[in-house]
Amino acid sequence: MSEQARILVIDDDKSIRETLKAVLEEKGYIVDTAENGEGAIEKSKTKFYNLALIDIRLPDMDGVKLLTAMKETVPKMVKIILTGYPSLQNAIEAVNRGADGYVVKPFDMDNVLNTIKEHLQRQREAKKYSEEKVKEFVETRASELESRRTR
Length: 151
What we know:
This protein is of the alpha/beta class and 151 residues long. It contains 5 helices and 5 strands, in the order βαβαβαβαβα. The termini are far apart.
């Protein structure tokens, strides 16, 4: 990994937070945790995270509500729902509210790691594409201004 991705794990279950933090840090990610939605919102206001793993049931708010709140504070952050209560309705609502992925508990750690890796790769590709488009625009605009100046 050329640039370490920052991940926020949001789950009210301390053992899940600690396990995910340990495994993800071992894989080279920078990991922070929050035990509820308010804590996650506060952290996302002061630090940038590439990705958030969000439990669908939190003590202070529904994970889907948190998706909406975090979409406003960090719109480009990848958001993956973790749930021990899978249902088609939950999945559809999560995706409609901005979830980029959906992982069912108890989860297979390899599946979680692959999901994270795939989403971070897409995020890097989108960033690179955006940077190329900005560069292209600047070069074109500079060329236009230069041609006007030399007329």
